[in-house]
Amino acid sequence: MSGLKGPALGAASDPGAGRALLHQRDFASLWWGQLISILGERLSYVAFIGLVAAQTRQLADRDAPLLLAALANVMAAPVLLLSPFTGAWVDRWNLRRVMLVSDLLRAGVIALVPVLYPIGGLASAYALAFVLFTCNVFFLPAKSAIVPEIVPPRQLLAANALLVVAGVIGTAVGMPIGGWMVDRFGWSKVLVINAATYLVSVVSLWRIAYVPHAHPAAAAAVRPANYLRELGEGWRVVRSRAPVALGLLATGAVWLGGGFLNAAGNPHVLRAPGAPGMARVGVLLLALGAGSALGTAWVNARDHTVPRARLLGLGLLVVGAGLAGFALSSRFAVFAIAAFVVGIAVAPAYVLSETLLQEGVEPRQRGRVFSARDFVQRLVFVLSGTAAGFLTRSAGTRAALLTAGGLVALAGIASLAWGARGKVRAAASDPRRSDRAAPGGTPAA
What is the pTM of this model? Predict the structure, then answer.
């Protein structure tokens, strides 16, 4: 793989790669399946909020905040409890099959919520939400791991950029439409529609003509000793390979900022003079999404000359500055500008961190590394949100957001220093490396 300090983004990009990829059957099927899955996830999230609202007189009851917090914990728990252990199984299985089964299960689980809720109440809904997000624990690493196996290396960056755009579109469309549908039709009908979106995703993913690599782990006997060795091997990769560590640093910084914004950013906006309520939050999310789409297009531009570590570092520094500007103002216009700028600057962390992990790891280890990424992201989000809550209570939203900006900026400085040392190399693209494994699970030289 190209070094993070040396070869620039332009060297890894293929002119017109985005347009070409959407005409390739395998990637186009994955892209549409991902878009529909993300759209379904946003619908389900809004519908679950609507369910809690219906149970608590539109969140007016005293128990509403606790129920919302419990719902958030139920959604986060599968990642925190299971992600460190599921990657080894994902590496053993056919990645396309993992995605298909996950979406089929999600369709069935989400369709059961309106059926079982009249019988079991919120307890049954929360239990099914846990199962639903357990399916994500398998789907997400499989999705990330399959991309470099169906996309040529020179188109990998463009593929990840397009998948980020799918996420932006799914969120920008799913959240407002989901809210409107819940208000108009009720949460139960929205969940039925959500189940249908997962089935459409299954049809799209079925069209991928995927032939898995021969991974030695898949042929090994399923014994506790083998499984524990494979788990340890995956975490050693996370610790020992600089491209992987840099990718996790960047994505962790983004989720840290998200945790602070969730706990301190929303109150900061709602308490600002003249802010009428949640409508302003929706506008800011739209500005953030528009900035992310523009930044993603810029990252994927073919005439880039900025090395990857430097681009990640500069992007995180701008994100930190945007959070500081957001914290120091009480004017909505400044909030909107800051959200748009942060969206642009955060795009490298979305696109490049995914690419670094894919390029820096052999195919047989990607499931474990991407499961570790999901665990790190969710853990950082929960811890940063908790810290922001305590800091907001004691020092106010401004102090909490300034703290977030400073921490993200520190991650940017670390990325710049890392790139300046010139030691970060991506092993997966090195032609001297092999996907074969030496005895004991160590990659062959």
Answer: 0.78
